[in-house]
């Protein structure tokens, strides 16, 4: 994977956030900011950023989320705190500004999709378009009560039997990764799994969901994605419920929960078509 990638660090609210940027094939265009999910590391988006740098005129940015990989707090893991979605949205804004922009297209996957919604809620003026890829807002689903109790079970499992036991049951829901011919994805820093289970699952497993009705009222340009290989997984069913509230398009895209990384070539056309559809809708709405 060869493409021009610039690495930097931006300090925000007590944390040095490691981020990367790349420009399009001809010149710097509109910014797309990619928000990682529970694995926390920005390098999962490098394949998609590389493909975009060769095919389209976008500036791309991604980063390691707070307390993940290269974005550790000064005191190390001992100083980690519970996931704060509004603070993470402010981290996204800091990365956007460090990249030299005030507005950005936002793409967030998995819990990064929840943070994309949070950014749209808190900074609507800074969100050009927002795409949430399988954001696991399970409390919107018909089986929300069952899923809430399952996350409680995972929390008790983590406390009483340890991370590996809880992670094994959770990861059994990540269908599609073992499909024939699907390449593996990059494994995150070992610290990321610890942070996810100790400091993020207590919030995400409690069903945290930004106010989607407010995002719709703000008129934010938004769309949601579900992946073909995820079949009936709860995070693949959530986008349809999000779309009902947001009044937005829902796209079925190639790959599994990290299809943008594992099957980038197949994912890219769907991604570009979604961006084009949002832009055309926005232009049409502006014309009245």
Automatic annotation (TrEMBL):
InterPro entries: AB_hydrolase_1, AB_hydrolase_fold. The keyword Hydrolase applies. GO terms for molecular function: hydrolase activity. Keywords: Hydrolase. The keyword Hydrolase applies. Residues 30-185 form the AB hydrolase-1 domain. Gene3D superfamilies: alpha/beta hydrolase. Coiled coil: none annotated. This is Alpha/Beta hydrolase protein.
């Amino acid at each position: 994977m060869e493409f021009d990638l610039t690495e930097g660090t931006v300090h925000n609210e007590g944390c040095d956030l490691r981020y990367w940027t790349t420009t399009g094939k001809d010149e710097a265009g509109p910014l797309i900011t990619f928000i990682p999910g529970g694995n926390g590391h920005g390098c999962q988006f490098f394949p998609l950023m590389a493909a975009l740098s060769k095919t389209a005129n976008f500036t791309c940015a991604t980063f390691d989320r707070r307390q993940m990989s290269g974005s550790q707090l000064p005191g190390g893991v001992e100083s980690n705190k519970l996931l704060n979605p509004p603070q993470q949205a402010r981290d996204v804004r800091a990365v956007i500004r460090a990249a030299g922009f005030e507005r950005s297209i936002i793409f967030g996957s998995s819990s990064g999709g929840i943070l994309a919604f949070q950014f749209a809620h808190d900074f609507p003026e800074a969100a050009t378009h927002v795409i949430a890829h399988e954001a696991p807002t399970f409390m919107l689903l018909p089986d929300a009560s069952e899923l809430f109790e399952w996350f409680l079970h995972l929390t008790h499992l983590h406390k009483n039997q340890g991370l590996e036991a809880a992670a094994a049951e959770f990861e059994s829901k990540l269908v599609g990764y073992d499909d024939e011919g699907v390449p593996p994805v990059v494994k995150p820093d070992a610290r990321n799994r610890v942070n996810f289970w100790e400091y993020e699952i207590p919030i995400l497993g409690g069903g945290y969901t930004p106010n989607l009705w407010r995002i719709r009222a703000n008129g934010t340009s938004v769309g949601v994605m579900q992946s073909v290989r995820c079949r009936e997984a709860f995070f693949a069913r959530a986008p349809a419920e999000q779309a009902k509230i947001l009044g937005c398009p829902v796209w079925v895209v190639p790959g599994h929960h990290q299809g943008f990384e594992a099957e980038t070539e197949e994912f890219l056309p769907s991604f570009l078509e979604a961006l084009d559809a949002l832009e055309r809708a926005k232009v049409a709405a502006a014309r009245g």
